Amino acid sequence: MSIQNERIVLIPAYCPDKKLVTLVQTLYNMQFTIVVVNDGSDPEQAPLFEAVSRWAAVLTHDKNKGKGAALKTGLTYIKNTFTIPYVVVTADADGQHLPEDILSVCEKARERTGCLVLGSRIIGKSAPLRSRIGNGITRLVFRLVTGTGIYDTQTGLRAFSNGLVDYMLSIEGERYEYEMNVLLQLSRHHISAEEVPINTVYLDNNTSSHFNPLKDSFRIYKEILKFSASSLCSFVIDYGLFCALMALTGMTVLSNVLARIVSATVNFSLNRSFVFGSHVHILKAAVKYFLLAVVVLVFNTCILKLLIAAGLPYMLAKILTETMMFFFSWTIQKLFIFKEVRT
Predict the structure, then answer these.
(1) Cα Rg for the chain, rounded, in angstroms?
(2) Residues 322/238, Cβ–Cβ less than 8 Å
């Protein structure tokens, strides 16, 4: 198959109902090309996928592998089948993404080549409680950790041009955490995101969702929590050494500098390998990190001395100072130190 300027809708499906047939038929009539991935659905769904195959290419996993794996299977097929340029729209199989919204994000992605377009739902009072809470918490944590404001971090309606397919295939994650990982890695790959308002549809109080609140939430937040864990580990080392040296010497600057040298070395190693998984040359990254450490140390020491001079106990002053520097350090590391250049 070799079609130019293709508009492709990729739908991962696990145990769907007849709403999938209706969606696929409608999209076909709108002149979309559709790829459906049967992610190990029950044998009872076989007639449904047979019906879908009239309008779509149907790929099948022998067993359930997860949404991320299904998306990657579909993207690999698209990459090997279609001739560029094309736009890919990922949509859910449960009928919560309306055809007109799929068209809307598709058209925006055609205008904004190289940009990831997100169909953003307005999570109002009519949304199920678990959706409101889940989206609200994720939105807050995502902004705190990345410094990026994305309203609907959990939307499955996304569109992008063929130039981003390799990026999508390179992201880790096989289940629901995959979509969060895509967003977490955006700035690292010099990719911008743009949100397009879409209708908010929850069918039967969202009971059709296969999202497991415990297991899948852990997978999603695991990537976000890595940096926090690394920072906490470094902070414990830094704080412990600072307090011990202050008790021994009573010298604020010396205690802070020595503690910072040790904790910064630990933090660099953890962030490079554990948090960002960066392949940037270690010497190049180390030089940048050293310069950041110097800047942070100067600000850290100045703020610390000011707080102590203002009458705060040195232990409390240290905690407040580290809290202020946490987000500054994260942003610089993510955007400048461990950021890899797309080829």
Answers:
(1) 24
(2) yes
Sign of CA dihedral 236, 237, 243, 247: positive
pLDDT at 208 > cutoff 70: no
pLDDT, mean of residues 130-148: 65
| C-alpha distances in Å from residue 261, one per residue of 120, 207, 317, 332 | 43, 52, 19, 18
Over residues 178-195, the pLDDT tens digits come to: 888 898 888 667 789 999
Six-digit token string for 226: 């890595």
Query: How is the chain split into domains, by residue range?
Result: 6-211, 226-337
Entry pTM? 0.66
CA-based max dimension of the chain: 79
Residues with Cβ within 8 Å of residue 221, at least 6 apart in sequence = 138, 141
What is the band of 132 on the pLDDT scale with cuts at 50, 70, 90?
low
Q: Does 3.90.550.10 match the CATH number of domain 6-211? A: yes
Q: What are the residues facing 90 on neighbouring strands?
A: 10, 158
Higher pLDDT, 62 or 331: 62
Task: Report the C-alpha gap between 124 and 131 in whole angstroms.
Answer: 10
CB 23 within 8 A of CB 92: no
**Whole-number Å distance between alpha carbons of 28 and 77:** 19
* Band of pLDDT at residue 342, cut at 50, 70 and 90: very low
Q: How far apart are CA 49 and CA 144, in angstroms?
A: 42
Calculate the alpha carbon distances from 67 to 37, 176, 296, 333 in Å.
9, 6, 40, 30
Half-sphere exposure of 104 (CA within 13 A, CB side): 15
